[in-house]
Protein 1
Amino acid sequence: MNVSARVPRRLESYVCGRWTPGDKQGVPLLDASTGAAVAFIDSTGIDFAAALAYGREVGGPNLRALSFHERAQMLKSLGQVLMDLKEEFYAESALTGATRADGWVDIEGGIGTMLSYSSKARRELPNTRVLIDGDVELLSKDNSFSAQHILTPLHGIAVHINAFNFPVWGMLEKVAPTLIAGVPSLVKPASQTAYLTELVVRRIIETGILPEGALQLVSGSVGDLLDHVEGQDAVTFTGSARTGRKLKSHPAVVANSVRFTMEADSLNASVLGPDAGQGTEEFDLFVKEVAREMTSKAGQKCTAIRRVIAPRVHVQALVAALGNRLAKTALGNPSDEGVRMGPLASLAQRDEVRERIRDLTVDAEIVSGDPDNVRVLSGDAEKGAFLNPVLLYCDNPFSASAVHDVEAFGPVSTVMPYDGIEEAIALTHKGKGSLAASVFTNDPRIAEEMVIGMAPYHGRILIGNRASAKTSTGHGSPLAGLVHGGPGRAGGGEELGGMRGVKHYMQRTAVQGTPRLLSAVTGRWMEGAGAGDTSVHPFRKSLAELKIGDQLVTATRTVTLEDIEHFAHFTGDTFYAHMDEAAAKANPFFDGRVAHGYLIVSFAAGLFVDPDPGPVLANYGVDNLRFLTPVNPGDTLQVRLTCKEINPRARADHGEVRWDCQVTNQNSAVVAQYDVLTMVAKTFRKPS
């Protein structure tokens, strides 16, 4: 049975812990290829104030009761279930006009982003509920008064208002960092493709993995929802700049200083370097990338290339190469074999793009494609929202305005020439701020000048060349670890960016007090907090017994000239400061021969390590190593080792322990300071 022939379903919202239909039948949502009704959408009758309150009062406490690692594990489990259900999502995705490749970016890209956040959070965040932000600020000479910045989850709800082009990725890329931060989400997808978002949310809720109130969905209009946002809430928006500005200036958003992140229209540019003429690998890569960005998701991507900027001497060859490649694009029903580009999301969207193309022709001429003559392999050319790729050329881009102001959100790009790198950079600036840009060059000098000149106007810049061709993710691919957003026209916001995205939903607070009390708040020992138990070597304690502040002060060891020379010959490090007395004295930092820094670290380990089998399983690193005072032959070293931070792993029988290691000389001067990182068993029984 053709999936398009099914009976249209009535979409529901998931609010206040239950699935709720609107009071009316709703507006029909159509198959983008055939025009057949897929679903009906309506949200009238929903109590939006109650939905927001439910998220704050139920979802928030449930999430904040979990640690960062527990929330991350929750997303991992959820992502694994969703990946097993992906074929169901692909079938629904085809109705939106997405090909299998388009659906992969949206569906598996969205789930992959969530899994990536889960992995990064477990690697980069502690297994706590509070984040430490930056170093301790010392506020007194005697260490009696200090300050530490911390990050804690907002006590509100995040409202995510998404665009139609990525109904899965657009939701999950925002929900993932929000949930890891410990903040519940309410998702409002764009109506055109909301049936796919609703299906994914249904499957999420069915898993029972998320705590009650962590995720809600509104299918349909948001009504008076924004009237009820408060100061602890956050709102994110992806869509047109006009709508974004309207939402950002909403009285409740302004009055309550609600955090607002906008990702808006973006006239992204791709620049062909002056070294990348016809016949170079970069020229061919550029043509392929521009064509791919024009046809992927039928050009309905906020990061798609809208302005193609090339050296004037290469423009004619570029237009010909692009025209030939675009003419081979097989347009039709994305479910059919051989189709490489599907329709736009709706007939209204097709009409909108045609109107914008007419606006662009004020400054540019169409050199490839006919927006009014649709040619398809399959699907209904009239009832389906099909549009063949359209390439325009603007010969005088500096005297034009439409090509820098009008976005045709479809398979449409405009080629424009430049004379000199300064002109190329200036043309990218005329977009007034973009999400993404790219430069195709194999010349390091050109790459440097272009990127530095373009960066203030762009959220992300890709440098494309032959060396990265096989591994590059391409111009238009936002990645979980990289910021997604841009200045000016692009909205001035940031999403993703790894843990940067998590921190957007947290409050940074400066906490001042005595080191002992600050350590209790942060779960991290700091200088001046005093020592805990010193009666037992801390390496003899399992995580069940070890406490922050437990400390060891070691015996001493005197460094001899023989030690230094032996270490030099043994390691091969015969740097003159260790081996040549006269040369060392001539060095302004030394007063004669000095010990190697790593000799000091090695001797320190010899002083604090307990050699017998115990709960300490492995040393896996050293952080923040600094050598502060030179060590000369005859100096005597001593170590103070303090348990600084304990980070148990949620699903393992061990955890990480960070130790503060301070090495001093006979004058109590600190000669070395660093953190030792070890794996420690949660429990330990001495072998019989």
Note: The chain is about 30% helix and 25% strand.
Protein 2
Amino acid sequence: MAEPLLDRALRASRRLRVNGEPRAHYVICGQDPLAYWVVRALRGSEPQAGRLRITLIVPDRQRSPAPDGRDLPGIEVIRADRLDEHTFRRANLAGAAGLALLHQDDVGNMHAALCAQEVEPGLRLVVRMFNTGLANGVRQIFPDSAVLSDASIAAPAFVAAALGEVAPTHFRHGGRTLYLARREDVRPNEVVCGVADTRDPQQDLVLPTDDRAADVVLAEAAGRPAGTELAARRLARARRRRRPVAMVLRAIRSFATRKIGITVILLLAVVGLLGGLYANAAHVSLADAFYLTLVTTLTGQDPDTAKGAAEQVVQVILNLAGLALIPLITAVVVDGVVNARLALHTGRILPERSGHVVVVGLGNIGTRVMAQLNDFGVEVVAIDKNRDARGAGLARRLGVPLVVGDAAEEETLRAASVATCQALVVVSTDDGANLRAALNGRTINDQLRVVLRLFDGHFAERVQRAFGIGTSRSVSYLAAPSFAAALLDRAVIATIPVGRHALLVTEVAVAAGSALDGRPLAAVGRTGSVRLLAHARPGQRYDWSPDHRLVIVAGDRLTVVARRAGLNALLREAAPPEEEITPPVGTPPLPRETEESA
């Protein structure tokens, strides 16, 4: 019995600060902006950040210019290119409260999870996976685990922005199906609570004081599946418009290269000039001269010494021109056939479309956005530099045309009919390339709705002011709260994206002796931070219209929609009073960390 007791004592000692206050240890493995935002979500802007010990494992060299969290203050950084038992022991994974595996490699994350289990069998595990179909298998191997896809979490926000709608978020809780909608699109008796006031283009006001001021609301889906209104509206607007004549003209334009076209035009001009000289020298009409010129150029003409000197000179020059024209015609035919086949293969010869959505980048998020738009009945045209991109196979199965090329080039955007599309969604992983594609799209169509994926929020604000591109999204920013909540073992019911904000719907249990125990329900809500949705006594059903004068008792369950910082504060008030734990004798003190300012 001595060994297990010693292990438990050592584990407890790792969760302490030098002043004896409990402190949970979390290990995060990543190399992209998702790791950065998850660390930021864990730390937040609340004093609770000092109660968490965070260790970040990153590759030895930074793989991209985007931040990955290694420069954030107050965290321990371990540099390692392999996630194995040795690396996890260096990170003091034994006794940690949770591990987040955030690499964009499903198999690699699975291998790292198996290695982590060797170090700490009872670990809380959060795994990032694109193929969420593996979730059940992961849970069988790791019972205390959560499998999340950042692309699946963020895709609805991009879809909604492209269609000019609110995010098609819906969830079921307490016997009700709730969904996000515009207040004008739902009946007054279906509104559960106001979420945000988005009528000011410069700023989205979330969870306003006056619930009636919110134009974006949570509503109950009474008698119809959530999301069907959006699908029906978009299906009615999406119409495929085929223009065979325009398609033929575009095919002719792509038949030959520009250099060959210029060469043919110059040679024909020379032949025409010589034809005029021939008509003057032979004293024949222009029609006869045209006939004789073509015959001489293409087939040659028998020599005739009886002709005049000028006529003989023109005949010789025409024969020389014919020697160049015949192989040039052959080159045009061969080059045109090759170019036409390549254009058809890469999607550059497509029928003109109108009212569709162009999605640039078929990576994780682009693939999800394309699939969801297709589910809503919206016509989609995809663009990617790589014909074998992650989502190319799905695009072929769905019948979505794929233009292979650089979206920063105007020719590529025109091939996708950007001039007549309803929205351009640019979601590649390169901020600079995304911005160039967006600006070129606006050059083609100055009224184009552009949805831009940008990591840096400050950069997005500058882009909005300078170019009028006001819809920007960060996949990592939208997904990070769900990953952080899963790591903290909090059940996030739904994530609601509003502009650049991400609201969380979750349930909070009130512990005995907590700060909320004995206070009225009115103490739960905070303007711009927390909104109470429902309240339930132990063993009773949810009350969706509770009396705010009702006193909270231990065991009550509070369903709230909140921003991350507000949720952190509410969880502290609902938590049981902390007990100081004395570390075992001989346990070395932990180093004091620099805490991030609130």
Note: The chain is about 40% helix and 20% strand.
Protein 3
Amino acid sequence: MSSNNSTRETRMSRNADHQPSPQRPHHGWRLFRRILFIIVAIGVFAIVAGAGLFFFYAQSAPKITQSALSSDASTRVYDANGNVISRLGAQNRTYVKSKNIPDTLKAAVVSTEDRRFYQNNGVDPIRILGAAFANVSGSSLGMQGGSTLTQQLVKLSVFSTAASDRTLKRKAQEAWLALQVDHKYSKDQILEYYINKVYMGNGVYGMQTAAQYYYGTSLKNLSLPQLALLAGMPQSPTNYDPTTYPATAKKRRDLVLAAMAKNKVITTTQAQEAESVSIKNGLSSIHQTTASTSAKTTKVIDAYLKQVYAELKSKGYNTTTGGLKVYTNLNMDAQQKLYNIANTSAYIAYPSDKFQIGSTIVNPNNGKVVAMIGGRKTGNVTFGLNRAVQTGRSSASTAKPLMDYGPAIEYLNYPTYEPVKDTAFTYPGTDKKLYDWDKQYQGTITMRKALYESRNIPAIRTLQNVGISKATTFLKGLGMTFDKTLTLQNGIGLYISTEQEAAAYAAFANGGTYYKPYLVSKVVTQDGKAHNYSATGKRAMSAATAFMLTDMMKDVMTNENGSGRSAAISGLYQAGKTGTDSYPDDYADKVPDGATMDSWFTGYTKSYAVSVWTGYDKQFQTGHYVSEAETKIAQEIYKYEMSYLAQNAPNTDWTKPSTVTETTQNNNKEYYITGHAGTVADTTSTSQYGSTNTTSSSAYSSNSQVTTSSSSSRVSSSTTESSTSKESSSTEQTPGGNGNDDTTNSSSTTTSSASSTTQTPDSNSNS
């Protein structure tokens, strides 16, 4: 009995030894508590750190004033002297006080932009979480974002809307200022500011002005569906324009109505009835606006302003809601003068109001575009075709210094008296013949004579010797790139704009440095941050090349046989080049002899480079040709404008660089690159084209160049020039000639940018 009891006690003791102690926690529970503690600690740290960072950013937040909240968010544009020349949107705003804003519109805006507007304190954490969930689930109907209406007002009032400025710091400052605004102003005041500030499309700011613009009446006279449309427009005013995109506008309006019904400010029945109303109901065909910037001033700067906005857009700025201050390089006096020359009869007798011009003026020393005009007699059209930057018209012979003679001096060391041949020429591999403007041949002449008389054949022969590759490289240095490989024909016509050409010729003017042309010098965003812009000069050619080209192009205006005599300005040191583009053979019989499609003149001093294009938009329409006499108009525009510009600029001549040597040829002053006084023997047989045409001297394919002495080349040059000049004297242009310098009358001359043989510049060419 005792033995059995002893056994039971032993078993109980063993079982007791194997049972866990109730005081010892399980290992898994300890691990869970530790992880939970770490998570809570991290969370607390994140909250503290986040709060610290928030208040750190808040300390540097910009000040916000009632003036900033109530002012429009328009873009102000200034000229070079700091005078306001345009206020995009400011001229189209009628401010409306809260008491005159319909309650229906207020309800529509709140339902659309911030349903908890009357409950939040300017920042709504619940809204932020709800927006995040709605965006993930797709249940927001596109109506609610994370920012409250007050935050949106702050953003429109003091911050830049550029994508690059959407930072954590900016969002923290925006939230901080929204809290301040909500504390300082009533909800009705905040709504008033918002309704008057938002952009409504077509240069219109504020919903009161939008009511006048779209419906021709005040807000108080609009119906529920009309007010709902206006309330929904600020999210994307261009896409929700009921006159242009009625389908998307209706969809947006109906979403607003649905949001209003969901927010119980209207009934479902009211929403459905409003949705059935046509989106075009009540729309006005005549848009009413007010104007604080005179229409006259707007017309004068139209093309320049359009290019300013294009430049701003390329830099990422939003000109409609950015509240920007834009400082430009515009010389308003020069702009007004150019406008007057183009649009009045006080200077030039234009053949018709349809005769058009495009012109750009550039400062050669920094690339600043100081004036630009994109057309004449354009009526009420604003921001229409800017012919100053169009690249669909041939630059004709103004291309010769850029693609032919400039590269010849730069790469082949041509002197200004280089012998070049003006003899019968057929484009290699074709049966297309090239002619000069007078359809005569002068034999061997100097490069200088070929340039100032603007003879085509010597120019193309020179381009042959240079080679397309090197010529293209030279053009690239002057800011011109092209989609496709250029051809010989481009040597007498590039598809470039007056802006590009003025900037390229500016490099000749300043000694060989290219500056990319630009209009905007500084942008100040709503937060007060200033962004400065300038062009960095890049060496495009040697100082010797720039000087020798300039010296030859002086003769274009001063030589008795120069093609640009009509651009001559007495006593002014200047240089330039003419250009006229003829009609192709299959159309030439439909226009008078000597008629052209395009006429150019690009010239410069040390202070300004001015490029002018003239012609008709529809050059193949009956009567839309530039007569032989009218080719002088481009030169005359240049002359009047440059004469005005020169009044307040120094008149100094170019100084010969040390790398250039002066010599005398045929009693004329000539120049050569020091060490390269002679010329190179004809190497046509080794030309890259394998042509049998006789060319001027070439060094393109030959490494063993034969150099004649300076004296022998002078004799040859002067003798041939003298004899050929006498032979063709009756066909050369007389003083004050028409400038009809490169009309080839050949089917080989292309007439549009769509031609398969002539290449157009790519997107980097400011088209």
Note: The two ends are 115 Å apart (CA to CA).
Protein 4
Amino acid sequence: MADADTADAHTADAHTADADIIVVGAGLAGLVAAAEAADAGRSVVLVEQEGEQSLGGQAFWSLGGLFFVDSPEQRRMGIRDSRELAWQDWLGSAQFDREEDRWPRAWAEAYVDFAAGEKRAWLRGMGHRVFPLVGWAERGDGRADGHGNSVPRFHITWGTGPGVVAPFERRVRAHADRGRLRFAFRHRVDGLVIEGGAVAGVRGRVLEPTSADRGRPTSRTAIGDFELRAQAVIVTSGGIGGDLDLVRKVWPARLGPPPRTMVAGVPAHVDGRMLGIAEAAGARVINPDRMWHYVEGLRNWDPIWDDHGIRILPGPSSLWLDATGKRLPAPCFPGFDTLGTLRHLRQTGYDYSWFVLTQKIIEKEFALSGSEQNPDLTGKDIRLVLSRVRGGAPAPVEAFKRHGADFVVAENLTELVAGMNKLADPDAPPIEEATLRSLIEARDREIDNAFTKDAQVTAIRGARNYRGDKLSRVAAPHKLLDPKAGPLIAVRLHILSRKTLGGLESDLDGRCLRADGTPFPGLYAAGEVNGFGGGGMMGYNALEGTFLGGCLFSGRVAGRAAARAIG
């Protein structure tokens, strides 16, 4: 009789379970986790509060940059990289200094091994390809053992963000066609189902269907309730960057006062809800004060979501001024030390700063982050890519120059200053032409020789020693007031919200941990919701190309581990 009761109980459990594994969030980490779990023979439900048109989440909008170490592309460009150098850079950037950094540091080391090992081959086996010129992002704070990349490591995906998403979307859709995976779009999770101290599923509201384009605001009108049950739940719901009030709430004092105004680098549905839901259920959130926001944001003249901001990926030549017209100190140069520059600017009392540059600089050094801002790379259009080496800035950059509210274009410095003062905040002191002219002329005199005491000019010349920068990224040093390099351009820069670097603490299998350090049975996490690994594998600073890579790695780990663990 006992055997029969046991058999009946198992049969009932099998009938009530909707899948072996539930994945919450259909961004890149969720797609990877779902694909890996389904590959292992497990049934999967992929739950997403947005519509099917948003599959791929924030990765779709990205430039598709990936952090590889000692890649063939690097070697062809004459770059000598190594796992040891990458780990040195990672530690210098992360600056782990807390007891809570045990698992983040372990994840960081595992990720660097992955980036120096099988990451490229794994992706390549799925058809992923990269652009041959390796970019040098986040060049650092000027110290060999400090923050930043010692060498170029930013590999742009051929196809940008959609090219990163595509292999995993194909895998997931193939499993759906075979019946191993099903989608639950417009299902908003409001809570975890807990039984016997273990996570046994999710519950929430079904939202009304939406036809809104990807990234556009969608309805939150509920038309019903749902509950889904499984042996494991993997949370891959992203960070908090779309909720600017929440960003301000957790803003750390070490970065200065939170900005009153900023632009959003992600849509509003990147709201951090699942962080709170998982924490309320008993999972531990660590390092919530670690975050990654940019200081080169533009108001999008053709916005997709509310407060839509676009980041400039700058070369090193623009003169950077604070809102009062003072030049930023070393190493606060364009593209060098994101949070160091943010920290400096938050002490000025203003939420914006300025680039002053020339047409010659914008043509070679301005790139805009995002798949939609790079139609040549996104569309894999070789002819359009080759047009970048001809005269003129890329078409999306020229469009911002013509239509963007943050651009001033002038034939002389007098007109430029007048335009800057029109765009300035009412409470900011006006930029004085005589002061700015003296500053620029002092900088321009340093161009006459191949050697200089100006640290930024030295950095420009040093960057051009790298063939990739000389070919496509860094303009030849020239005087800003040289009419042949004009017109002059000023760009008002905003703080742009982007990534959450802390999150759900997890072990090296992606299992969420409780406050006492023990695994929370049945609960896993991957992607931005767990700081891309462990609860913050990047520590205080990111090396760029690591956000997508962190989603890939943590999604793979969690999907495989959950598939192994269930009965």
Note: Residues 546-565 form the longest helix (20 residues).
